[in-house]
Structures are given as C-alpha cells and as structure tokens.
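## retry 2 of 3
previous attempt timed out at serialization; input unchanged, resubmitting
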Amino acid sequence: MQLKDNKKLDINNLKSTYGHLGFIPFAIFSIIPWVFGGPYAEISIKCQLLYGGAVLSFLSGMTWGWEDGQPHQKSNLSIGIVFSLISIAIIFMVFFELIFFALLASMIIFQLFYHFEKSSHDFNEKNDDYKKFRKMLSLLVSISFLISFAYWINPYSNPIT
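## retry succeeded, writing output
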C-alpha cells in the first residue's frame, strides 16, 4: 500500500512540475509587451494566444481519457470537442488579426474549461492538492491574458496604432 501511495505522490509532483513549467510561457509572453513594447509586444501577444490555443486543445482532448463509466461522459466528450473547436477559432483569430477578440475569448474560455473540468466525476476523484493546483493554474493563465489584454487596449501601448 505504501508503494502505491508513493507512486501517486510522485505522479502528482510531476504533474505540478509540468504545470508550472507550462505556465512559464504564459507569464513571459504577458510580461514582454510591458517591458519591451513595440513590435515585440505584438509578436509576444500573438505567441501567447497561439500557445494558449494549443494548450486549450490539449486540455480539451483530455476528456477522451476521462473514465467512460462516469455520469454524463457522452456530453463531456461533446463539450470537450466544442472547447477544442474554440481553441482552433482562437488560433484563426490570431491569423485574421482579431487579437482583441482572441484575448477576450482566451481569458474567458480557460476559466470556463476549468469549471467544466471541475464538474466532472473524474475531477472529483482527484486529490485536493491537484484540485487546488488546477484552480490556481487556470486563474494564473487567465490573469496572464488579462495583462496582455490591458496592454492591447491601452491607447498608449497598443501595437497596432
């Protein structure tokens, strides 16, 4: 029994480490515009949105791995696909220069995905540390988009004016 608990602890530590590492690009891309401005700002914000779209697509795909016997799994899969399509839409918004809408959508969608994931039976079976970690990580990612959004809408710093 002790060996099994140690393996769970090890995998939770690994998830936490990877989660923190995965957040680093969000943090860096949201700070670059404020530090360097100009053309670096636009490139950084676009990279943040593209990275966010990829991460959201990955998170959405996790619904395929949720326990098949859990309540509402058919709708969970469908909702996961909708989130994946939204992530593709965010990526397309970047290519069509709809940065304002992509930032706004990203801020909201990451929080909505967390609430969707939190409502699943699979999430409720996770340990409390993981639940707290996912909540914190989703909030930090949304804040990083909020920081970039603030830069984008600021009339003194907007890179397209």
